[in-house]
Amino acid sequence: MSITSSNSEIVQKLWNLCDVLRDDGINYSDYVTELVLLLFIKMVHENTEAGLLNKHTLPTGCRWTDLNDKDGLNLLDDYKRILLTLSTGKDSEGNTLHADPLILAIYADAQTRLREPRHLKQLIKSLDSIDWFSAQKDGLGDLYEGLLEKNANETKSGAGQYFTPRALIDSMVRVINPQAGEVIQDPAAGTAGFLIAAHEFIKNADNYDDLTLKEIEHLRNKAFIGVELVPSTRRLALMNCLLHGMEGDDEGVVHLGNSLGQVGMSLPKADIILANPPFGTSKGGDASITRDDLTYPTSNKQLAFLQHIYRNLKPGGRAAVVLPDNVLFEAGVGTDVRRDLMHKCNLHTILRLPTGIFYAAGVKTNVLFFTKGSTKDKLQEENCTTHTWVYDLRTNMPNFGKRTPFGEQHLTPFEAVCRVPLAERKEGEWSFNAEEAEVDDSVVNQGIDGSAQAQRIADSLERPLEKSRWRVFSRDFIRDTKGDSLDISWLKDANSVDAANLGTPEELAGEAMIELKGALADLEALVASLAGGVKG
User: Fold this and answer.
1) pLDDT tens digits, residue range 9-42?
2) Can you say whether the dihedral through the CA atoms of 522, 528, 532, 535 is positive or negative?
3) Per-residue b/e over 419-442, b at no fewer than 16 CB within 10 Å?
4) How far is CA 198 from CA 7, 54, 201, 243, in A?
5) CB contact at 8 A, 241 and 224
6) Contact 172, 320 (CB under 8 A)
7) What is the pLDDT of residue 341?
8) Are 284 and 238 in contact (CB under 8 A)?
9) Separation between Cα atoms, residue 299 and residue 291, nearest integer Å
10) pTM, full prediction
11) DSSP 373
């Protein structure tokens, strides 16, 4: 679902329009919401002109052609009237102009903060000057998706700080391998990135042209369902879905609500769940955890979401979920939830992600891949996990960010070993200079299988297994040695400090004192030289 070069240029042009909005006093965080209210009217116009949109067209009087030939106060007043009509379905006299539930949801409570008609005119002229034929060819949905990603990269605030990188979304979807006819859910949908990536994956499959009209109808209206708590984010998600040809039910693909409340309890079971739940704890309000059907009550939102996800899978259903490190090792309820997960599902794979790929600094995350039931019986509800494979993509990886972007190439080695059928998987994968890493002197490495068969496999690898990024651990090991913690690592980062090799507190304090004295002497010399320069 990568954006093309032509669409990338258009995304930059659209983002540059935010300067116009800033000149009108609109906050940085509101740029995209303000821009897309107008942009969506333009995109519906382009899709309608191209014959790609038959349903969910805009009513007469609320179309692009009703705006682009006006000027001055008439233009701004007309735009405000259009937003009110799209939001309520009625004109100023109370007459019903449209009753499209999806358009009503997209424009719910929509208002512009623009105050200067000339700024609105400038936006309209700029949107009219874009080469929409090229954009249409590449897909307006991908263009819109690129704008959302740009916003997340640039603002680094609010929900954007946890925006899931596109490369990771696409990789998770490829590993899960969604198929036409399946129901795919995201209980923390955001701007619908996972759902759209799954939709595009199915559309790009070799067998897409063989689908029946009924199967295509299912894909458009019934295959995808998401839930989003924040109304403005849901607005972006609904626009995003519609521009990708995903309509959903009367409420659209993404419903407004809280998956940890009543809305989540009423969600139908799914074949696939893809999610990056919000980080943090429940602090009351709309985002509070009010469900009474979760086996293990908790204020930890990720643990609550994880329970929802594995409970809401159909037998044999598949899930891929982004979760922070604390979910893997938290004691008490955390242990209970992990144990229940491994009972009811086959937790077959954990991907330890590098730090820095999310826009909140220091957040350490993982992707858990699991299937409801066991490999032999999808209806099994106990002891479904027998082995868990772990790929360490964190140790000795670069500090990802703007200068070193995280991309598809960083996930390719993981996908290569992960997409091998479980029964055929083999340990051993040494990408990204894994052999140069130090080996952690922990129970993980002490517990390497010492059997003759394992030794023959290790010998055949010609490289040390303990330095492999790809290892497998038995359920017995996780239970008996790790105490059901899933925080499993065996490589040491080159920048890590081994506490055992540190000196005594007295020695450390003495070294610090010497360094401070040296720094002070350098500073005094600098002051003296500067003083000498002034005298001269």
Assistant:
1) 877 887 787 777 778 887 666 777 788 888 889 8
2) positive
3) eeeeeebebbbbbbebeebeebee
4) 21, 23, 5, 15
5) yes
6) yes
7) 98
8) no
9) 11
10) 0.83
11) B
